Amino acid sequence: MKVAFRVDASNAIGTGHVIRCITLAKLFKERGADIQFICRPHEGNLSELIRKNDFNTKLLSQSNTVNKEKNSGDNYLNLLGVSQTRDAEETIESIKNQKLDWLIIDNYALDYKWESLLSSYSKNLMVIDDLPSRKHTCNLFLNHNYTKSTIKDYKNFLSKDSKILLGPKYALLSSEYTNLRKKFLKHPTNKISNILLSLGGSDNENITSFVIDVLSETEFSHLKLNVVIGMNNKNRDIILQKVNKRANTFIHEGLTNIASLLANTDLCIGAGGLSTWERICLAVPSLVFCVSQNQKPAFELLLKENLIQSAGTTINLSKVKL
Q1: Is pLDDT above 70 for 318?
Q2: Where are the extended beta strands (E) located within the chain?
């Protein structure tokens, strides 16, 4: 079986799309599939990480142009750097002789326009998308977010025969989470002594520094703090200075999997997105920052169900009580 992934990471896009695709790619590889990743070399791309996981990676052309093409009033196409048509043409050039069994697309900037151009180059198309109301042409559609939408709702935006996988039971988590869930599933505790701070691959708003400042106050000085910073974090030096000043504080850099850290944590302070399901899988209580508009629907539903606690948004950061 031949499988290709069209997915991007960047300082603006984040790293979650690529991380979850690597998880899925590993499962395909275990079953003997030949895997290829196709990515655009944005600033903060994860092509080296993909290669370190032993997957072939094809880089499309570099582009610094802001794409002016419109798509349902959103700005996600600007993150692509080129038009969908050009991206499709370059992707076709990289796969046209491969006879793909599956082409898997995980990219907010691509929709049915791109997919219709690629449909004849792969037996099957799979789309991973958690944005509402976007049209797709695909055989298999996955949204693993917590959502009010039903499969019936999605049929209005998908191909007639698309198979739909909807909800967190399809979350793309690595096997480490499954294994640790069986061993270390936590029970609620009123005592907090060990905190994990993890704000994703980029943390462009530098929430990490803000939270370290809060936890450096006298009333929190007894707490152990593990700080995870992502591969695209531009505030690394500032964060390291703050970590070095605070006692009982430890830094972890460039991790693609924080399962073992979560398994030994009383409280996690983090962002929405894929990491939400990592925390919930291991039943780790969490204070969650909603750091982007696409995280908001699931964030509000999880908050309503008391599955997370809100740390607020990045617009008006203020000190919180633990």
Answers
A1: no
A2: 2-7, 34-39, 56-59, 100-106, 122-128, 140-143, 163-166, 194-198, 224-229, 249-253, 267-271, 286-290, 309-313
